[in-house]
């Protein structure tokens, strides 16, 4: 007998395990006792209203931010206990595609994708070339290798950034609003690509996005977070059947509901009458 319990086996199935996460920015509470799991091999979407802390969550997972309390495990390692070298090693195994993840403008498409390989490996030139071309092929842009970033459309640039994010063969890729600013065709292409790359390379993907329709199309599992907590979780089919008001407000894009449009502030009249005395 192996001695492994069902719980141990279930834990091994998780690439990311977050428990009891608390995080504040000054007096503003961003997360309050948040639990979240990312299953190996899955595409998991984290959705929620603007300013709810989705980008912050990705930064906590990658160890760029430190929580006030709670635990964050990635591939069995306690992120909060890793030293600088350990964190560096772990981050190398995570690809990131951030909305602002711009390409280096003075380098060609090829050199942009080659950049992490040149920084982190000492591969021979012919091996490096093969790897770059394979990653560019995966995003459909092998033929664009000699173009400069200024010659690319927005959608192409995002795909080059994606090739760069996967060039070190990460175990996981984190997408932060990858569809922002894309026309419907390139958005559709990116959505399909995210799913294909995940499955073909046996990766795990975390997708932060506002785009309910596109995201539910490819996600295996969804988390809806609001006001510091998980307010719903499940497969897209399960969430579609969730009738609670806050879930419907977000999923159906309703302007009114439990989630407020205004960032917390004192009453308007009070604020206006204080004019001249304070900001
Ligand atoms: N560097 C910072 N310093 C102080 N507060 C910050 C900082 N970065 C983010 N915040 C605050 O933390 C909260 C969560 O921000 P975050 O960017 O994680 O939200 P989000 O859910 O990703 O939002 P969006 O969907 O609009 O991108 C917001 O209230 C924001 O104002």
Automatic annotation (TrEMBL):
- Domain ABC transporter, by residue range, is 16-252
Instruction: Name the SUPFAM superfamilies on file.
Output: P-loop containing nucleoside triphosphate hydrolases
* Pfam families referenced in this protein's UniProt entry, alphabetically: ABC_tran
The UniProt entry, under SMART domains, shows:
AAA
Q: Does the keyword Cell membrane apply?
A: no
This entry's Gene Ontology molecular function terms read: ATP binding; ATP hydrolysis activity
Q: What EC identifiers does the entry list?
A: 3.6.3.30
UniProt cross-references to PROSITE patterns, sorted A to Z: ABC_TRANSPORTER_1, ABC_TRANSPORTER_2
InterPro entries for this protein? AAA+_ATPase (IPR003593), ABC_transporter-like_ATP-bd (IPR003439), ABC_transporter-like_CS (IPR017871), P-loop_NTPase (IPR027417)
Alphabetically sorted, this entry's keywords are: ATP-binding, Hydrolase, Nucleotide-binding, Transport
Give the protein's recorded name.
Fe(3+)-transporting ATPase
Organism of origin: Thiorhodococcus drewsii AZ1
